[in-house]
Amino acid sequence: MVSIIGNLKPEDDYTHELGPEPNFNESVYFNFFDPSQNRGGFVRIGNRANEGYAEMTVIVWNPDGSAYFNYAKPDITHNDAWDAGGLSIEIVKPAERVKTRYEGKALFMANPLDMQDPGKAFKSNPREKLVIDLEHTAVGPLYGHVGEPGDGNEFARSHTEQHMRVSGQLTLGDGARIAFSGWGLRDHSWGPRFWQATPSYRWLTGNFGDALGMVVTTNGDGIGRGLFQTGDALLRIESAQIQTEYRPGTQFHNRLTVDCTLEDGTERQITGQVMGYIPLRNRRGGQNTHVGEGMTQYTLDDGRIGYGLSEYLNQPKEA
């Protein structure tokens, strides 16, 4: 049995009663990376039933850096399930097993930097078939917290994360089905959300097999903390500092180094090389929030290699 850390219950893996907030959001996110192929991606769906739509994102990066990508805002009227825009999430066993499936069209971008101009990118790149059919099985505890209404949190009042083993199949374009086997992290949050309500941040996730995973979360200056998942336990990173190299003249991160101090006083270093990158944004009220997503190869100071995601969110006034 997988352990649960925090004030969570197994049933928190499912959707919750729709809150009264106009911007109530309940989202699930799953990233996945196959180290044998240098291929990976993520799916995300956020139900905003009080606003009448869901936010749906899917991306698969290929080894050469090209990508299949789709974003849509399909209409929804309830928060009973995550199932819209061709993406569906099935909780097979709470806190242990989840299936994700997407079937539909996606942009094929030889250069995902085209997404700097979404309108042009959607007009100038071909749409191809994409099928994602994966099962996510826990390799570590489910952890997080359930927040209280009225606490002023407008981004992720209640939040869980968990490191996972991932297997299944992908179908890219008109090609044959590709077997997929690797690891990733899942994330679930519910409560009011405005992407513009959170300050700039850096969020790094990575897996080094079943027995070791990591999450680092910092502010926009790269200062924060995190944890290592070690089997069925969590080891806190009491302090973390990220140094980032960007593509010249841009806010697109390319390489990073994380210096960590663990709760037992041990110091560790993680380096990351972005292998595939796409610049995304969220627009509301005339404000564009930049969200840079990077498929990243990580190296621990002991030489272990892992794969995961590096997400850099910048608000315009701080970019």
Could you name the key traits of this structure?
mainly beta; AttH-like fold; eight-stranded antiparallel beta barrel; 1 helix
Quick recap:
This protein has 319 residues and is mostly beta strands.
Topology record:
Elements: E1 4-5, E2 24-34, E3 39-48, E4 53-61, E5 67-72, E6 83-84, E7 87-93, E8 97-109, H1 118-124, E9 127-138, E10 142-145, E11 158-172, E12 177-192, E13 201-207, E14 212-219, E15 223-230, E16 233-246, E17 253-262, E18 267-284, E19 287-300, E20 305-314
Parallel strand pairs: 1-10
Antiparallel strand pairs: 2-3, 2-12, 3-4, 4-5, 5-8, 6-7, 7-8, 8-9, 9-11, 10-11, 11-12, 13-14, 13-20, 14-15, 15-16, 16-17, 17-18, 18-19, 19-20
What would you note in describing this structure?
With 319 residues, this protein is mainly beta. The chain has a single domain (13-314), classed as AttH-like domain (AttH-like fold), CATH 2.40.370.10. The protein has 1 helix and 20 strands. The protein has one helix at 118-124; strands at 4-5, 24-34, 39-48, 53-61, 67-72, 83-84, 87-93, 97-109, 127-138, 142-145, 158-172, 177-192, 201-207, 212-219, 223-230, 233-246, 253-262, 267-284, 287-300, 305-314. Strands 2-3-4-5-8-9-11-12 form an 8-stranded antiparallel barrel. The chain has an 8-stranded antiparallel barrel with strand order 13-14-15-16-17-18-19-20.
